[in-house]
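Retro notes (design track)

What went well: tokenization of the new backbones is finally stable.
What didn't: we kept losing track of which sequence belonged to which structure.
Fix going forward: every design gets posted as structure first, then sequence, in one message. First example under the new rule, 312 residues:
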């Protein structure tokens, strides 16, 4: 259901009037440029005559990739041969009237095509040029190919996630591409910041967004553990709680939530029990807390649990 918004005219299409050149492929870059299109920018997707990879990737409907459609809805499309002088000249003409360029080629590709930031800013000093890559534009790993599953592994995310799965020793298979979406979103945020800075300086800039660094931002506790010893609780603090018909997710995020939960499961005396009365004590005895919660939840259906927990 879409809710009426009396302020819609001033809260949507914030980037109307901006032009974006989207050279990106696969997921991270197209996701970033799709967000710019959603905000009202004119996004022109630049492709070769064969089209970018995602055009043929499943799921398909009537021979067309619906994933490609989701990532590129709202964009215009132009076919150019970037290796030809005519193609390069067309890009330079487009860049002269554009505000933003998004690309996620391997570092060095746009330089070899003579379409890198240093060259295009001579055509348009106000151009904001966003480069998305696996490991950043410089450094020993810069030119390595990178896809989300590889970055999940290289960043330590896969092993960090595995540590929260009791009794398991093999990382998960990958079907949800966190690195692409997170990196694309960071790129969008960086572009928005650069647009604001341009109102002050009058100049564009080159933005370097790496998938590896983006994924590291997700491993909050692990970054602390890499610097000093952090004792884990006896059971992961957040995880599925079994019911008679499935699972619910219970998150105890405050004293009020804990106190309400203890009342619901029939153990109000645990609120003042020294084992659970403070966050530090609960963390040390978390397995006992959740064993008590699951003794209650296993007797109820998922719907009944959710209804009972609604007031916590």
């Amino acid at each position: 259901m879409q809710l009426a918004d009396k302020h819609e005219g001033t809260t949507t299409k914030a980037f109307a009037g901006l032009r974006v050149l989207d050279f990106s492929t696969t997921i991270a870059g197209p996701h970033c440029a799709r967000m710019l299109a959603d905000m009202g920018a004119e996004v022109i997707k630049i492709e070769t005559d064969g089209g970018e990879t995602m055009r043929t990737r499943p799921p398909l409907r009537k021979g067309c990739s619906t994933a490609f459609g989701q990532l590129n809805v709202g964009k215009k499309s132009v076919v150019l041969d970037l290796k030809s002088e005519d193609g390069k000249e067309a890009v330079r003409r487009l860049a002269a009237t554009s505000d933003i360029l998004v690309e996620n080629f391997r570092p060095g590709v746009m330089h070899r095509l003579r379409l890198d930031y240093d060259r295009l800013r001579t055509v348009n000093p106000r151009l904001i040029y966003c480069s998305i890559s696996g490991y950043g534009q410089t450094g020993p790993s810069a030119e390595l190919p990178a896809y989300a599953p590889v970055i999940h592994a290289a960043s330590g995310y896969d092993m960090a996630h595995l540590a929260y799965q009791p009794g398991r020793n093999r990382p998960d298979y990958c079907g949800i591409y966190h690195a692409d979406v997170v990196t694309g979103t960071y790129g969008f945020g960086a572009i928005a910041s650069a647009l604001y800075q341009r109102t002050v300086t009058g100049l564009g800039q080159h933005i370097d967004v790496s998938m590896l660094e983006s994924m590291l931002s997700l491993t909050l506790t692990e970054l602390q553990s890499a610097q000093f010893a952090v004792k884990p609780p006896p059971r992961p603090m957040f995880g599925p709680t079994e019911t008679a018909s499935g699972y619910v997710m219970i998150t105890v995020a405050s004293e009020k939530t804990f106190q309400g939960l203890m009342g619901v499961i029939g153990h109000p005396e645990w609120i003042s029990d020294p084992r659970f009365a403070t966050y530090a004590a609960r963390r040390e005895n978390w397995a006992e807390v959740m064993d008590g919660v699951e003794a209650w939840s296993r007797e109820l259906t998922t719907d009944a649990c959710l209804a009972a927990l609604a007031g916590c």
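Added context from the reviewer: The two ends are 27 Å apart (CA to CA).
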